[in-house]
Amino acid sequence: MTASHPPARQTTPATAPRRTLSVSRTQVAIPAAEKPVSPANGRVLTSDHLFQGTQCLNILHNGQTYQLRVTRYGKLILTK
User: Fold this and answer.
1) How far, in Å, CA of 1 to CA of 4, rounded?
2) Residues 15-73: pLDDT tens digits?
3) pTM for this prediction
């Protein structure tokens, strides 16, 4: 009498781990020749300073409120 063996278990190939894309805002250094140096050119503020970790801020200008938002791609959108 021969012993019967259970059929060999089929193994599936290991699936590759999922990859996610994370987009972050990067700061680009402005060459010294392009940096504003006189008050005539106005103040320079970084978006990080303005938004302080949020994605949207309100700006009051001439009695109207505007929203400045950062998109998921790091672009700025100003809406009324």
Assistant:
1) 9
2) 555 555 555 555 555 555 555 555 567 788 888 998 999 999 999 999 999 999 999 99
3) 0.48
Which carries the bigger pLDDT value, residue 12 or residue 54? Answer: 54
Residues contacting residue 79 through CB under 8 Å, at least 6 positions apart: 66, 67, 69
CA neighbor of 80 nearest in space, from 61, 66, 59:
66
Task: Give the Cα separation of 80 and 66 in Å (integer).
Answer: 4
Q: In angstroms, what CA-CA distances link 50 with 7, 26, 58, 68, 74?
A: 66, 15, 10, 10, 14
Q: Which amino acid is at 15?
A: T
